[in-house]
Structures are given as structure tokens and as C-alpha cells.
Amino acid sequence: xxxxxxxDGLARHGLGxxxxxxxxxxxxxxxxxxxxxxxSVAPGEVLAIEGESGAGKTTLLRAAAGLxxxxxxxxxxxxxxxxxxxxxxxxxxxxxxxxxxxxxxxxIGFLRSALRLWPSGELALAAECLGRVGxxxxxxxxxxxxxxxxxxxxxxxxxxxxxAPVLLADxxxxxLDPANAAAVLGLLRDLARGGLAVVVSLHQPELAHRHADRRxxxxxxxxxx
Amino acid sequence: xxxxxxxxxxxxxxxxxxxxxxxDLGRLAAGLPRLARWLAGAFPPDFSGPGDLARRASETVxxxxxxxxAAAIAALPLAVLGARPVAPWPVLYHPVRALLxxxxxxxxxxFALILVAAVGLGPxxxxxxxxxxxxxxxxKLWSEALEAxxxxxxxxxxxxxxxxxxxxxxxxxxxxxxxxxxxxxxVWEFNIRASTVLGVVGAGGLGQELKNAVDLLDFARxxxxxxxxxxMVLVADRLSGALRRALL
Lengths: 225, 248
Known about the structure:
Largest sheet of chain B: none
Radius of gyration of chain A: 17 Å
Distance between the termini of chain B: 47 Å
Number of strands of chain A: 9
Largest sheet of chain A: 6 strands, mixed
Shape of chain A: globular
Helix content of chain B: over 70%
Oligomer: heterodimer
Distance between the termini of chain A: 40 Å
Largest interface: A-B, 32 and 20 residues
């Protein structure tokens, strides 16, 4: 119970405005990929971004996370949003625990992290984050020995480790079977209930309908609904 | 048309090389009986003074091993500086690459030749020569492994606030461990072979013994040394292969 409170406490860490995006535009190679997108997500809320492949969902999330150059404004309570990548982006040879600790690198000095001298507080937090995604027993397992669903949960734990108020998940269930997809989306929903503002891109409308509080549709880089 | 020109250019190049080398089959024919005489005189191989042979063989292994280890340590920062996705200071990328090409371009034998003059005769000069050349080789192989690696975990680390150096040290280096360790083993194996001739310039190892034997036209001794060299290279090859397989 105490562990649950501490992780939820992390989620509440940045309680405030959630995520506010205004006039977000991205051009890649001279082509407009996003044009004047605006959205807002409150803490405790799950917003699903729907759209066909190439509609701009990934670019929207990557721009909101500051990973691609863009124009417009992105506000996320003064902290960088945490990102869950489409294909989990885990280091295959690292353990689940070390992958989660990657989320804390912004708070740890070079030498300590390079020598794997993780601060005890961060180790405890990583254990809690893994517990939150139901993978405590897998902490020592190498990422490449985990199933697809487990890897995506580790990726979520890594994002939690950032203690960010906003969590952006790019097609987190694209490669998962229906049961695992439902479990991962249920987990994101639980995290939102704990105080995070969650934005998740999905191309299955039925999943968006079932797991999101609000939905937003992108077509050709513009919000259409 | 273009293919024809290519063949023509190749033929011209080979002709130029032939002109430079001036191969003389007559001289080869005259030399063959001499070689046959030496070969006949090489049996049985002369393994006398096994202590000396063992000491020289140990020097060769030590030169190769310590040279490779020192090169690996020096190569680590250079590989990171010379790998585009993680280079912390992109402005240093081209200078570092140029340095690596220079180190690789000069053979360890040549470095040893110069270093013998600087630090004196013996295996230390050989080890330094091996280390200098191998630093270029290992850093180049490592930076290529870093550049070819899956970069999404690095991007995830950067998006979590990691510095590029942190992303390289914590994520990329462990991810590329099979390739990087394999590169070191490959270079070590190469260095065992290369170190056998360093003694020719006075830089220690079996090469020293080999040069003495050739100077004295003692071909039974030469054969014994060649047998030891082949055995060492085979053992190094098998050991390195087994370690590489274990790392995958």
C-alpha cells in the first residue's frame, strides 16, 4: 500500500496544468507534417490521438516531447514530458531494472551512472516503478528475454521513473495481442487516475473508445475532430 | 564501354606494378634449389634451449596482450568522440576520425621501429608500437559498431534527460558489447601474429630469436620458431573464437 502511494505520489509530482499545446507545427524536408495543432490534457485524464498511418500522430507526440524541431507552444508544467516509444526502445542487453533506471539519468551524474553506482533512492524508486507495472519479479531479467507486453510495461516504468507530470505514449500497443494491449492501456489509465496527464496515440478506434476519456482525430497533420 | 575502360585501367595498373616489382622467374628458378637445401637442413627442428624459446614466446604474447589492452583503454573515448550519433562534441568528429586513420595507417612494426630508438630495445617498445596502431583499429571498429547500433534506446535515454555521454556509457556500450569485445579479440589475435616479427627491429618477442637464427642460416632453429608461431596463432585463434561465441 505504501509503495502504491509513493508511486502515485510521483504521478502527482507535477500536478498543475497537465499538457497544453498551441499552434504546434512541424515541417520535415520542406513538407508540413503538422499544422497548427492545439490540444490540452488535464492531470488525471487520458487523451487518445487517433488517425491513419502518416496522419502525424507520432510527430505530434515527438514534438510535444521536444524530440523534433517545431514551432508553436508546448507547456507541461515546467517538466519535460516522459515518452513511451512505439517499439519500447529498451536496451536489449540491460536488465529490466537498469532500463528503468535510464529514466533517472537526467538526475544522476555521469560517473555514477557510467559505473552503475545508482543512488539508493533511485534504486528504490526503480523497484517501485517496476512494481507499479507488475514486473517486480522480472527486475533482473534481460530485456530481450521479456515478452512484448512485458517490454512495453518496462518502457512505461522507465517513463514513470522520470517523475514527469505528462506521459506521452506512441502506439504503445501496436505490436501486442488484444489481452496485453488491454492490460497496457488499463495501466496507462490507472496512472492517469493517479494524477498523470496521459496522451496515447492509437490507430484502433475501439481501443481509444474503451480506454480514453477524450479522443482527438488527426488527418494530414491537422485536428479534424 | 564503361566496363571495358575499367578492365583497361586494371590492366594498366597491374602492368605498372609489374614494372615496379620486375619479377624475374630466372632468379626464382636459381633460388629454388637453395630454398630446398635450407628446407632439407631444417629437419629435425631445433628446439634446444626451451627456456629461451618459452621466454621469447611469452614476450610475444605479453606484447600483444598488453598492447591490445592499452589500445582498448585509449580507444574508448576516441570511439565515442568518433561515433556520429553519440559524439558529445560533433566539432571533434572529423579530427578524431583523421587521428584514427593516421594511427591505423602506420603499422605497429613501424611504430616499434621508431619507439626502439626512443625508449630502447626490448618488449616495451614493441608493446607501445602495438598499442598505438591498435588504438586506431579498435576505436574505428568500435565507432562503427556504435554507429550501426539500434539508436532508439539512446533516443529514449536522451528524452529522459541523459547527456549524450551518459547515453553512450549506460545504454550504447552495453548494447554493443558483443561487437566491441569481438573487435578487441580480433585485434588481439592479429597482434599475436604481428608481434612475432617485432623482434626483427629489436622490440622483443620471438622475432628477435627468428632474426638471430636467419642471420646464422640456422634453419633448424628457424623451423622450430615457425612451428611455435603457428601453434601460438592457432591457440589464439581458437581461444578468441570461443570467447567471441560466448559473448553473443
